[in-house]
Amino acid sequence: MITEIPKQDFHKCKRLLHERSLKESLAIINGMNPGRIFVDDTLTPTTAIVWLGNNDGFIFIGDANNKSFLCELNSFIDHLIIPEAKRVHLECFEAIGDHPTWNQSIENALGHRHLESWNQRVYEIDPNHFQGKIAPTLPDDYDVVMLVQHDSFVEDDYVKETILEFWPSLDQFFANGFGFIATHRNQSVSICLSTYVAGHIHCVAIKTEEAHRERKLAQAVAYHFVQHSLKHNFVPYWDCMEENKPSVAVVEKLGFEQVLQYKGYFFSFS
User: Fold this and answer.
1) What would the DSSP string read from start to end of 123-141?
2) Where are the beta strands (DSSP E) in the chain?
3) Which residue range(s) make up the domain with 171?
């Protein structure tokens, strides 16, 4: 039976991970970021689903050929996940396998649900490839600043909501992560921040207000994020959709290199 385990038991799932496991699941298992975990066996799990705390998908880890788990999966989704997902206004189920062997298992188990897919890329950076890079020149009235706890910018709805999408509190974010914003006339218009943190690895999220795009703001805040990361021996970990051309352009311009590609699947609840 697929069962949810309490946070104090998350550590039991750590042995299900491997060297190239997605860092979001590791951050949740470590207790750093919010999330929920469902397992096939509460004492000694061999297969598990990690529900990301920002409701941005379900990561499948462990044995992808666990027959009893796969047989129960659809009933579990129908009776537990879908009702709870709808309560937090999710409109679809996003499934991501922690290693390629999960792809076939997900397709076999969920293929009858009009399953669609997308490709995702993971990038990391060699510090030597960042050396010599310079921050882009921004238009007048724009500036880049680091987020500082209790600063007025942190109370800006744009900034606060972005942080709390990934972290349980502002205090938790400032204790374990960091970020940079681009401002325009004292308004936050672009942000780059730590989302999931696993040891010295910081997953990156970046976004820019639509009215302020195509001004190199994303590149600027990302540049300062990477610079700060490398100065403090952090590893910036950039995970984005292959079709997100603006994100791919920024990350590659900064000297990141693709280290992993994986497939995601989704089906609508309607």
Assistant:
1) EEE-HHHHTT--PPPPPTT
2) 3-5, 35-39, 47-52, 58-62, 92-97, 116-125, 142-146, 179-184, 187-198, 201-208, 235-241, 256-268
3) 127-254
**Distance between CA atoms of residues 191 and 193, nearest Å:** 7
Residues 147 and 204 in one domain: yes
Distance CA 28, CA 9 (A): 11
Q: Which residue has the tokens 């999966």?
A: 73
pLDDT(165) > 90 = yes
Same-domain check for residues 215 and 96: no
> Under DSSP, is residue 43 helix (H, G, I), strand (E, B) or coil?
coil
The three-state secondary structure class of 178 is coil
pLDDT of residue 56: 84
pLDDT category at 75 given cuts 50, 70, 90 is: very high
The sheet with strand 179-184 has its strands ordered as: 3-5, 35-39, 47-52, 58-62, 92-97, 256-268, 116-125, 235-241, 201-208, 187-198, 179-184, 142-146
Contact status, residue 194 vs residue 173, Cβ threshold 8 Å: yes
Residue 176 and residue 197 in contact, taking contact as beta carbons nearer than 8 Å: yes
Predicted local distance difference test score (pLDDT) of residue 144? 96
Q: Residue 189's domain is classified under what CATH number?
A: 3.40.630.30
Does 164 have pLDDT greater than 90? yes
Spell out the long-range contacts of 40-44 with Cβ–Cβ below 8 A and sequence spacing 24 or more: 40/1, 40/2, 40/66, 40/68, 40/69, 42/3, 42/5, 42/9, 43/12, 44/12
Cα separation, 221 vs 184, whole angstroms: 13
pLDDT of residue 261: 96
Angle (nearest 5°) at CA 256 between 196 and 231? 65
The residues, ordered by sequence, that sit 6+ positions from 21 with a Cβ below 8 Å of its Cβ are 61, 98, 99
> For residue 151, what pLDDT is reported?
87
